[in-house]
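Input/output pair, single chain:
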Amino acid sequence: MKWVYDDGGRSKYYHGVANDCVCRAIAIATGTDYKKVYDMIKIYADDYRTNEDSEDNSHPSMGVSKKLTYKILTDLGFIWVPKMFFGKGCTTHLKSGELPKGKTLIVSVSKHLTCVKDNVIYDTYDTSRKGTRCVYGYYVKP
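Output:
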């Protein structure tokens, strides 16, 4: 699978290392300014911590929990398509031909979210592990 370097616009605002894959993936997939996505996630995280889960320590630059990621993306109109099931092992990889063509996806892999547009990875590094990385599922707009 081809990979294109894309930081989602983070370099316009921040420098250095961050665990902001959720923020970057949403910015890239939706074409929304990174800072707008960052601010949106911060509001969601603060509200979620106050009203839903006081233990959730999600932050746009330090990582976002799976539950909060799901809430944000479904609120944005994405649907979750699971690709890994109990007892089945890994059936879908981050590899050409195993994900839908012509779609923009936010793909969940181990401890990371990445954006895939028409079978091209857009991220700060090649997350495919040479086509061996297992896909847990992906978010797509219907």
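The helical segments are 21-30, 34-51, 66-75. The first helix runs from residue 21 to 30.
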